[in-house]
Amino acid sequence: MKKTESAEAGAAAAVVDFESRPIVLVGLMGAGKSSIGRRLASQLGLPFRDADAEIEAASNLTVAEFFEIHGEAAFREGERKVIARLLNEPRHVLATGGGAFMNKKTRALISRKGCSIWLRAELDVIYKRCMKRNNRPLLKTGNPKATLKKLMEERYPVYAEADITIDSGDGPHEIVVDKIIAALDAFKKPAATNGTAGKP
After folding, report:
1. Which of 9, 48, 115, 185 has the most CB atoms around its CB within 10 Å?
2. Which residues participate in ATP binding (predicted)?
């Protein structure tokens, strides 16, 4: 009997307290990370942070200008540093750039310090949203839809490593926010033995 109680106590102690961690939205451009993130933060009474906006403020350049002047590698390194800094702040909702979660170090840091949510969307939804704004550096190609399809093929298997997956369709963002809140309420994840969080 005592052995069983001890095992149960140990399992309970291994559950990560996600109520104190930043909520990190990941996903492809056009998935709705910023707009949904703002609504989610408002609903939860939390601050909202946007990694791209933080980079723009720090560099005094738009993301497109940063890409053009310094290149993608420099942008990703700056992005990694910004996200690392933000993850040390009190709990908030953080919208990341589409490529942020592809960085292995950034992904590991988010796993240790945040709760990641992949906003998954279909190609047609992503394309429609992205074409509303012509400021996506990676889409300045002759066939942006084909570029998006290629990015989805490369990135979706990695995004799938996020703690929670929520489908972001073409409907009102409030529906997605409600789904996220319900998933957060239900979500618990055991801590891995090395101190990082594991899958549910």
Report:
1. 115
2. 30-35, 136
Say how many C-beta atoms besides its own lie within 10 A of residue 69's C-beta.
Answer: 11
33 assigned ligand-binding residue: yes
Tell me: is residue 114 an annotated ligand-binding position. Answer: no
Check whether 2 is labelled as a binding-site residue. Answer: no
Annotation-wise, does 192 bind a ligand? no
Tens digits of per-residue pLDDT, 87-103?
999 999 999 999 999 99
| 193 contact partners, CB below 8 Å, separation of at least 6 | none
pLDDT tops 70 at residue 119:
yes
Asked if 51 and 82 touch (Cβ cutoff 8 Å), the reply is yes
Q: Supply the pTM of this predicted model.
A: 0.81
* Residue 98 assigned ligand-binding role: yes
Q: What share of the chain is helix, strand, coil (3-state, %, to 5)?
A: 55, 10, 30
Pairwise CA distance, residues 21 & 38, whole Å:
17
Is 100 labeled as ligand-binding? no
136 is an annotated ligand-binding site residue: yes
| Cβ atoms of 167 and 121 closer than 8 Å | yes
CB atoms within 10 A of CB 6: 10
Q: Is 35 annotated as a binding residue?
A: yes
What one-character-per-residue DSSP string does 141-162 give?
SS-HHHHHHHHHHHHHHHHTTS
Closest listed residue to residue 167, CA positions, set 178, 158, 157, 153: 178
